[in-house]
Amino acid sequence: MANADFDSTTPLDEVRQSIKLVLASYPSLNPNGNCVYDSASLADPEFDFQKYRNELLTDDACRQFNLAVAWLKQCPRTKTINRRKSSYGLKEEVEDWAHGYVGNGAFIAAALHLGYKTILTDGYPNAYLNISKKERPAPRP
């Protein structure tokens, strides 16, 4: 994936293009993560997965992606995948740091965009990354 330097001043259209590249490479990625695990949604004949995936392209999701990119850029990487905390737990750390909501799917998209090694498991929305369990950014005051 391209590794652009995103911050709060990056035009959202540029961020959106980067998310589109990630989505093209990871067809099950969506706002909740790696798959739809809500069987009620899947059973609903009106459920449109592509429309649901495109929620990752909204302005709000682009801002979440930016927050996750900014946080992940401060995290040391490891040679191996860290299975102590999944993407869901890590995105909660971003939320504490940024004082704002970040969706699991936006977090995973940011990690993939930055070239983190990931383990994505079919039927499970979360991912594991090659991220250090130490030296992660502390919450902002």
Describe the structure.
This protein has 141 residues and is mainly alpha-helical. It has one domain (12-131). It has helices at 12-25, 39-43, 49-53, 59-72, 87-98, 104-113, and strands at residues 77-82, 118-120, 127-131. It starts with 11 loop residues before the first helix and ends in a 10-residue tail after the last strand. The model has no long low-confidence stretch (mean pLDDT 88).
Give me some keywords for this one.
141 residues; mainly alpha; 3 strands
Short description:
This protein has helices at residues 12-25, 39-43, 49-53, 59-72, 87-98, 104-113, and strands at 77-82, 118-120, 127-131. It is mainly α and 141 residues long. Strands 1-3-2 form a 3-stranded antiparallel beta sheet, with helices on one face.
Q: Kindly, what is the distance between the CA atoms of the first and last residues, rounded to a whole number of angstroms? A: 32 Å
Radius of gyration, in Å, reads 14 Å
**How many β-strands, per DSSP?**
3
Strand content: 5-15%
Q: Determine the fraction of residues in helical runs and give it as a percent range.
A: 40-55%
Task: Order the strands across the largest sheet as they lie in space.
Answer: 1-3-2
**H and E order:** HHHHEHHEE
Note the overall shape: globular
**Distinct helical segment count:** 6
Number of domains: 1
Structural class: mainly alpha
Sheet having the most strands: 3 strands, antiparallel
Mean pLDDT: 88
As residue ranges, the low-confidence spans are none
